[in-house]
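Technical annex, item 7. During the second reporting period the consortium partners agreed on a shared format for inverse folding records so that results from different sites could be compared directly. Each record opens with the tokenized structure and is followed by the designed sequence. A conforming record, contributed by the partner at site C, is shown below for reference.
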């Protein structure tokens, strides 16, 4: 599985192989949606003032590119540093693309006072070949988050509050064809392939 990835500063685009269901908490199209693209918009901290309505600004930026139906991430990470990974388990295959910035790293269950003023983030988009139900897509998203956290923990980033587990602005999008498979956990081929691809990309 090798979907098309295009870098055109300040945009990074993942083109899905067809219109697919996507689950995310992206600022512009959260929840369960259908789309053919997942995109990143690179920003600098200074671009996001306290007065700016970020959702409106991003939606306008997307509309100007005819990308209103895309699921979009915001990141201050240099998009040149994006990473991709593929993994397979029997008939299941997974593709992951990640941008990893840790300037506002946090440890789950605590907060640093200065982290909220920074916008480094971990954004992960994944593509599965296995058709999933909405229930399966929810479980798949939990595997992505678990793999992200494991990778950050293994990087051993020390904070005043302990080892970092992610950042305060991470976002995940999981794409898959629509189907009836309800299970995508660690004991399944889907979960194994997805977890490995995300871990390797992060």
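Designed sequence (site C submission):
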């Amino acid at each position: 599985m090798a979907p098309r990835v295009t870098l055109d500063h300040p945009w990074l685009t993942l083109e899905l192989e067809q219109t697919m269901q996507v689950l995310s908490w992206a600022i512009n199209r959260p929840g369960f949606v259908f789309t053919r693209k997942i995109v990143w918009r690179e920003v600098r901290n200074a671009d996001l003032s306290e007065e700016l309505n970020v959702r409106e600004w991003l939606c306008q930026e997307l509309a100007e590119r005819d990308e209103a139906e895309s699921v979009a991430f915001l990141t201050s990470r240099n998009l040149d540093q994006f990473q991709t990974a593929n993994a397979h388990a029997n008939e299941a295959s997974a593709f992951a693309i990640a941008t990893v910035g840790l300037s506002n790293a946090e440890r789950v269950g605590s907060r640093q006072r200065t982290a909220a003023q920074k916008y480094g983030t971990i954004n992960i988009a994944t593509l599965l070949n296995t058709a999933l139900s909405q229930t399966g897509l929810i479980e798949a998203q939990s595997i992505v988050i678990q793999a992200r956290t494991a990778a950050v923990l293994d990087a051993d980033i020390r904070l005043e509050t302990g080892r970092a587990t992610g950042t305060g602005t991470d976002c995940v999008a999981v794409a898959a064809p629509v189907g009836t498979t309800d299970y995508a956990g660690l004991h399944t081929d889907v979960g194994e392939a997805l977890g490995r691809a995300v871990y390797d990309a992060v």
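Helices lie at 54-64, 134-155, 189-201. Residues 134-155 form the longest helix (22 residues). All partners now use this format for quarterly exchanges.
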